[in-house]
Specification:
The chain is an alpha+beta fold. It is built from seven helices and 17 strands. It has three domains: about 80 residues, no CATH class; about 70 residues; about 140 residues, Nuclear Transport Factor 2, Chain: A (Roll). Strands 1-2-3-4-5-6-7-8-9 form a nine-stranded antiparallel sheet, sandwiched between helices. It has an eight-stranded antiparallel sheet with strand order 10-11-12-13-14-15-16-17.
Length: about 350
C-alpha cells in the first residue's frame, strides 16, 4: 500500500457523523458525472452531504456500499461492508493471535481514488468505554497500519488477567493475592465479608422488554444477566420445557438484537460436526457448546437489512496437567465456517 495517509482521510466519514440526507437534485452535477464515470452500473439509494463531501449510499454489482466525493466532484473512495469469511484468512488469524479480549466490530473493503484497495477492520476491547481501533490490511491480508495497542502488551495483560495463579506475578499482583488470602481467612472465622463488586445490570427498559416477551410463568430458571462486549447485555434463561436460551440486548437502543438456543447433543448440526471432524482429525475434542442465533424481526444491521442467523460453537481439548484449551468458532446460516473468536463472549460463557 502506497498511501497510508488514507487512515486520517477515512476516520471522519466512517463515523457517519455530521451527515445530512439530501435529494439528488441538490447534488452538484460534477459529482453525478464522476459517479457515472467511476461505476458503469449502479443505483443510488440515498444521498448525504457532510462538510466538504457528498456521499452516495448505493448498490453496484449487487454490493451495497458508500461512495465519497469532494465538494468539487472528485471521487475519494468507496467502502463496502465485508463479511469476515470474505476477507483474507490472514486478517482473522492476525486478530485472533494478537488481540485476545477484543472483538471485531466491523470489516470493510475500500476502493481508493489512487488505486490502492485494502481492507479495514475495526476492533474494540470488551468492556465499557473502550475506544475503537483500526487495523488496515492489504488485499492479501498483510497488516499495513494500526491504531490498536501493541499486541505484546495486549497479550501480556490478557494472560495476567486470565491466569491470576501464575507464579510469574508482579509485586502488585502478589499483594493482591495476599489481601485476598487474608479476606478468605476472615470469612473462615466468621468475620463479616467484604461485599463483592456488583455486576453491571441492564436498564429497566431492557428488563421490562424481556419480562414482556418471556413472562416468569414460562421460565423454569433465570433470567441471569451478564454484560457482553461492553455494549450488550445477555439474559441466560431456561423455559418450562428445560431448553436453554440466550437473549441479547443492545445497551444503547435497549432493544432485543438476537436470541440464541443452546442445542442439546442430539441436535448438534451434522454439517458442523463433519467440519469439526476434519479440522481436528486425529485429535481428541469435545463440543462444549453449540448455540444457534436468530436475529429479532425488527433488528437491522448497518446495511439496513436483517442479518442472517448463525451458529456459535465452543470446542475443548485436554492439555497436560488436566487443563483445557478452548476453540471458539462461528458458522453462517448454511453451516459454513466464518471465523474464530479470541475470547469468551461474556463471564458466563465457557471459560
Amino acid at each position: 500500500m502506497k498511501r497510508l495517509l488514507l487512515v486520517a482521510l477515512l476516520s471522519i466519514p466512517f463515523l457517519l457523523n455530521a451527515q445530512t440526507k439530501i435529494k439528488e437534485t441538490d447534488v452538484p452535477r460534477s459529482v453525478l458525472l464522476t459517479l457515472e464515470k467511476t461505476y458503469e452500473s449502479y443505483k443510488v439509494k440515498t444521498w448525504f452531504q457532510a462538510p466538504g463531501q457528498y456521499i452516495a449510499d448505493f448498490v453496484t454489482d449487487g454490493q451495497h456500499g458508500r461512495c465519497y466525493f469532494t465538494a468539487s466532484g472528485e471521487w475519494q473512495y468507496s467502502s463496502f461492508p465485508a463479511q469476515l469469511n470474505e476477507c483474507p484468512t490472514l486478517m482473522n488469524t492476525y486478530f485472533v493471535n494478537n488481540y485476545p479480549g477484543y472483538r471485531i466490530k466491523s470489516t470493510e473493503y475500500i476502493e481508493e481514488m489512487s488505486g490502492d484497495n485494502y481492507y479495514r477492520m475495526v476492533i474494540v476491547k470488551k468492556g465499557v468505554g473502550s475506544n475503537d481501533c483500526e487495523l488496515i490490511f492489504d488485499t492479501r491480508g498483510k497488516l499495513q497500519k494500526s491504531t490498536a495497542p501493541d499486541p505484546e502488551v495486549v497479550k501480556r495483560d490478557y494472560y495476567a488477567h486470565s491466569n491470576p495463579d501464575d507464579v510469574t506475578v508482579t509485586k502488585e499482583e502478589a499483594d493482591d493475592k495476599s489481601r485476598a488470602h487474608r479476606a478468605s481467612k476472615k470469612r473462615e472465622k466468621g468475620v463479616e465479608d467484604v461485599p463483592e463488586e456488583e455486576r453491571p445490570e441492564p436498564s429497566n427498559a431492557i428488563k421490562a422488554n424481556f419480562n414482556k416477551r418471556y413472562p416468569a410463568s414460562r421460565l423454569s430458571e433465570g433470567p441471569d444477566w451478564y454484560e457482553r462486549s461492553g455494549d450488550e447485555f445477555v439474559a441466560y434463561y431456561r423455559n418450562n420445557q428445560k431448553n436453554d436460551f440466550e437473549a441479547v440486548y443492545s445497551a444503547e437502543t435497549e432493544t432485543l438484537i438476537k436470541t440464541g438456543k443452546v442445542l442439546t447433543e442430539d441436535r448438534y448440526k451434522t454439517a458442523i460436526k463433519k467440519y469439526l471432524n476434519e479440522k481436528f482429525k486425529g485429535e481428541k475434542y469435545k463440543i462444549e457448546k453449540m448455540v444457534t442465533y436468530e436475529f429479532d424481526s425488527k433488528y437491522r444491521g448497518s446495511d439496513g437489512k436483517k442479518p442472517k442467523g448463525y451458529t456459535y460453537v465452543v470446542v475443548s481439548q485436554k492439555l497436560k496437567g488436566g487443563a483445557k484449551k478452548f476453540t471458539r468458532m462461528e458458522f453462517d446460516n448454511n453451516n459454513n465456517f466464518t471465523g474464530l473468536l479470541a475470547s469468551p463472549l461474556d463471564p458466563r460463557d465457557i471459560q
